[in-house]
Each structure stands twice: as structure tokens, then as C-alpha cells.
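Quick one, C-alpha cells below. Sequence please?
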């Protein structure tokens, strides 16, 4: 149920850029093929992301052991993010995404075979999701870098909103309950179905998005350190990425333990895996609302106010199901978190695409995700250790406090004036 922050700042979009597009057709057929392929892949992601923790809970009740499985899919961002971003800027981004999705199908297919033959253990599961995470790094960076080549820059807010809406519906709204159903059939189904969906995504992307999608020519040699340098020098991106890293670390730690808090006979709520997965679909309901509302609200509320407000509400809400351990509190929390966190993520992704030069987009995205998403496995491991020492409730509330504090600190440093200046500077340079 983790909803990672993308690691970039909200856009200084104009009212025109934030307004709804007049017709979906203006985005073009290749864009819609990319969205459809991403929807299939994210449906598989949703099954894996919801199903693996529920499967792991049947193998162990140890917070420390569970944290290892939770950290595994995010660890590749910490190790490979910058290198993968550089690779995306050197090769055809369409080919990179196709290769990553094909490799994911192979990894999950192997896991399905191991599960069907009774050879799936907790260490094996951790290795499988680690390999799955490697494919996720390359596929996500290639997709994000390719999107601006498919739609006009003025339509990026609407394009990102629609893409995120489809991803969240497939990932959580459909993927979460499907994972619960597949788990009743067996672990082989839980891993085999996402493998098949990855293959379908490959076929759709290969046929629906033709042509070359390389970085613009004439940008000079592709060096990994350039993306990190742009990130660290930027007055807006730098503080938001660092805050996003803290938020992702705290939220991953929280949701690593949250499944133990909610699911099973030894948990505080005693939910079944199936009911938990249905409740998690509320995250996607909120995510759809957030992805559609973000482009409309940004012109009225302002970028900085909206991003800070959505983050503050999202992470403060995490305390509710701990203080009020009831199924209704869980339902309210996932709905609020889905709406507010996704609204911020749509704005973050749009800002990265509008501020970063196209030839640097893969590298800056890789560096941003390395810092912001790479903190997630550290959060999972830290939460597991904290829960072993202090218990589940103190560890969950501690993760919530860390996240809220990070947003408050960012609010003292980030100003709308600075955002507007950087957007104007990027427009003049472009």
C-alpha cells in the first residue's frame, strides 16, 4: 500500500497549462497505447505489491524478517537508479521499457513455477522481488522519459494526470482485490498472472508506440554525474527530493508494519488477507480523484500551497488507524492518503518533465529516484528493527511523526516565488 513520492517539486504551471484538455484525441494514439501498456503492467504491479506482503505474512510474523521482503523491491533504486537513468538517456527509451517488461515476465514466471512446485521460501521470495525491482527501475525511468516525446509540453499536466489515474486504478483499485483472490488459488497464480500481464504490456507497447524514442541528438556525451549535478544545484528540486526521501522512508516503514497491524489472528484488527486487499482498493479510489483534481486545483491554490497541504494531510492521516484500530479508520485513511498523495505526485512528475532538459531527463529522474525511492528499503529495515524493540504501535506512530516533521521543515524553506523564478528560467532556456 506504499505510495512513493516521486521526488520532484510541484510545477509552476500556468492556468492554461493546468486547464483540462479539450479532447482526449489531442494526446494522440501512441500516448494512449503507452497508457494502455502501462495499465496492464501496473495491474501486475498491484498484484505483486499487495500479494507479496500477504504471502510473506503466511511465512513469518517477524517484523524484521518481513522488513527484508518489503525492502527488496525498492533496494535497486538505491543501487541502480543513477546508472539506469544514464542508460535510458543513451538507448532508445522504448526498447529499454520493452526489455524491462520482458525480463519482469521471466522473473515472475520463474517465481510462479517455484511456488507451484512447493519450493518457494521466504529467502527465495526476497530474491525474486529484488530481481523484480531491478526491472521496475528501468521500466519506470524509460516510461517517464518517453512521455514528453509523445505529447506537447502544454498537455503534460493532463497527460500525467490521465497516466497516473490509469496506473492507480490498475495498481490498487483492481490489482489489490485481484491479489486477494489469486492468493486463495495459490502462490503460483499470484505470481503467474502478473507475468502474463507483463507479456501483454510488451506486445501492446511494441505495436502501439512506433518509431525511435532516443534522447535529442547534439546534447554531448551522456555522463551519469550530470543528472545528479542538476538535481543538487536546483533551488527547488533539491529540497523537495530530500524531503521526498524522508517521506518515502517513513511511509515504507509504516506500511511494512501495517500489514502485521491489520492482518492475521495475531494482529490488532484481525482482518483476512482478502478484506485487507479490498480495503486497499480505497487507495486507488482516492488516487483517481487526486490525479484528476490536481491539474484543476493548482491554478487556484498555488503550487507550493497545494503540494505542502496534500503531503501534510496524507502523512498525518497515517496516525488514525493506529490511534483508532478499527476497520472504518483504515478505510478512511487509505482514501485520504490516496487522494492527497497522488495529487502531489502528479504535480511532482509534471515539474520534472517541464524543468529538466529533454536530454537530461533520464539522468535527473534516475538521480531523483535514487535518493527519493532509494530511501524506501532503509525505511523498511529501520521499521522492522524499531518494531522488534518497541512494538508495532510505537513504531507506526514514530514513522508518522517523522513524515509530518519533514513536511513542516520543507514548508519553512520552499517559497512560491522561487518556484516561479525557476519555471521562468527554464522557459527562457528552452
Amino acid at each position: 500500500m506504499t505510495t512513493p513520492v516521486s521526488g520532484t517539486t510541484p510545477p509552476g504551471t500556468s492556468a492554461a497549462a493546468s486547464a483540462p484538455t479539450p479532447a482526449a484525441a489531442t494526446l494522440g494514439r501512441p500516448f494512449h497505447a503507452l497508457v494502455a501498456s502501462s495499465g496492464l503492467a501496473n495491474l501486475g504491479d498491484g498484484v505483486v505489491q499487495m500479494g507479496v506482503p500477504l504471502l510473506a505474512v503466511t511465512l513469518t510474523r517477524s517484523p524484521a524478517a518481513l522488513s527484508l521482503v518489503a525492502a527488496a523491491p525498492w533496494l535497486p533504486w538505491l543501487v541502480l537508479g543513477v546508472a539506469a537513468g544514464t542508460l535510458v538517456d543513451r538507448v532508445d527509451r522504448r526498447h529499454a521499457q520493452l526489455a524491462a517488461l520482458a525480463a519482469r515476465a521471466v522473473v515472475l514466471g520463474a517465481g510462479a513455477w517455484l511456488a507451484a512446485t512447493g519450493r518457494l521460501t521466504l529467502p527465495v521470495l526476497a530474491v525474486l522481488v529484488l530481481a523484480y525491482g531491478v526491472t521496475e527501475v528501468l521500466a519506470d525511468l524509460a516510461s517517464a522519459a518517453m512521455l514528453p516525446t509523445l505529447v506537447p509540453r502544454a498537455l503534460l499536466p493532463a497527460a500525467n494526470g490521465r497516466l497516473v489515474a490509469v496506473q492507480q486504478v490498475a495498481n490498487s483499485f483492481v490489482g489489490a482485490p485481484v491479489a486477494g483472490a489469486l492468493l486463495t488459488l495459490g502462490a503460483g497464480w499470484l505470481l503467474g498472472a502478473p507475468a502474463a500481464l507483463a507479456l501483454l504490456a510488451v506486445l501492446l507497447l511494441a505495436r502501439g508506440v512506433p518509431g525511435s524514442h532516443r534522447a535529442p541528438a547534439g546534447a554531448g556525451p551522456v555522463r551519469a554525474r550530470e543528472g545528479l549535478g542538476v538535481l543538487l544545484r536546483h533551488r527547488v528540486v533539491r529540497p523537495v527530493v530530500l524531503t521526498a526521501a524522508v517521506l518515502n522512508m517513513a511511509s515504507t516503514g509504516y506500511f511494512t508494519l501495517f500489514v502485521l497491524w491489520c492482518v492475521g489472528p495475531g494482529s490488532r484488527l484481525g482482518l483476512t488477507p482478502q478484506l485487507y486487499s479490498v480495503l486497499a482498493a480505497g487507495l486507488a479510489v482516492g488516487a483517481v480523484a487526486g490525479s484528476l483534481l490536481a491539474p484543476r486545483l493548482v491554478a487556484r491554490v498555488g503550487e507550493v500551497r497545494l503540494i505542502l497541504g496534500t503531503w501534510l494531510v496524507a502523512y498525518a492521516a497515517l496516525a488514525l488507524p493506529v490511534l483508532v484500530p478499527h476497520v472504518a479508520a483504515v478505510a478512511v485513511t487509505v482514501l485520504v492518503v490516496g487522494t492527497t498523495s497522488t495529487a502531489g505526485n502528479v504535480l511532482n512528475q509534471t515539474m520534472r518533465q517541464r524543468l529538466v532538459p529533454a536530454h537530461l531527463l533520464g539522468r535527473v529522474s534516475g538521480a531523483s529516484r535514487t535518493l527519493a525511492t532509494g530511501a524506501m528499503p532503509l525505511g523498511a529495515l529501520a521499521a522492522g528493527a524499531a518494531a522488534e524493540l518497541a512494538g508495532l504501535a510505537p513504531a507506526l506512530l514514530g514513522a508518522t511523526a517523522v513524515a509530518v516533521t519533514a513536511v513542516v521543515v520543507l514548508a519553512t524553506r520552499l517559497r512560491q516565488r522561487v518556484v516561479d523564478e525557476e519555471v521562468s528560467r527554464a522557459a527562457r532556456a528552452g
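The CA atoms of residues 107 and 337 lie 31 Å apart. Confidence is low (pLDDT under 50) at residues 7-25.
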